[in-house]
TrEMBL record:
UniProt KW keywords: Cell membrane, Membrane, Transmembrane, Transmembrane helix
Membrane topology: Multi-pass membrane protein
Protein source organism: Williamsia serinedens
Main location: membrane
Protein name: Membrane protein YeaQ/YmgE, transglycosylase-associated protein family
Superkingdom, taxonomy of origin: Bacteria
Subcellular location as annotated: Cell membrane
Presence of the UniProt keyword Transmembrane in the record: yes
Membrane-spanning residues: 20-37, 49-71, 77-96
């Protein structure tokens, strides 16, 4: 295996978004994280519960990817997953606000 392929494999293993909370956990935590992030970013009036869940779940993946370079995000549990999803959701909403201007 080449050095590049090995580096890609290590990066893929490190940036995994699989945690112990499962799919239903991602939906619940994503909804809460998306709602809190929309409150922080001031976009709560424009978003409903469905969009809060979508932002939270995408934010969980984004936050999990970004934090995987510094922490083991797969074994964090519910609270760490919530903080990861919240961080990713705030970053996602910030990027969306920048694009919409």
């Amino acid at each position: 295996m080449s050095t590049t392929a090995a580096a890609v494999e290590v990066l893929a293993e490190r940036s995994t978004t699989t945690t112990s909370v499962g799919v239903i956990g991602y939906i619940i935590i994503g909804g809460l994280a998306g709602w809190v992030a929309s409150k922080i970013m001031g976009t709560d009036k424009q978003m409903g519960i469905g969009l809060n869940i979508v932002v939270g779940v995408i934010g969980a993946f984004l936050g999990g990817f970004l934090l995987s370079f510094a922490f083991d995000t797969a074994s964090g549990g519910w609270f760490f997953t919530f903080l990861t999803a919240l961080l990713g959701s705030v970053i996602l909403l910030y990027i969306v606000k920048l694009v919409r201007r």
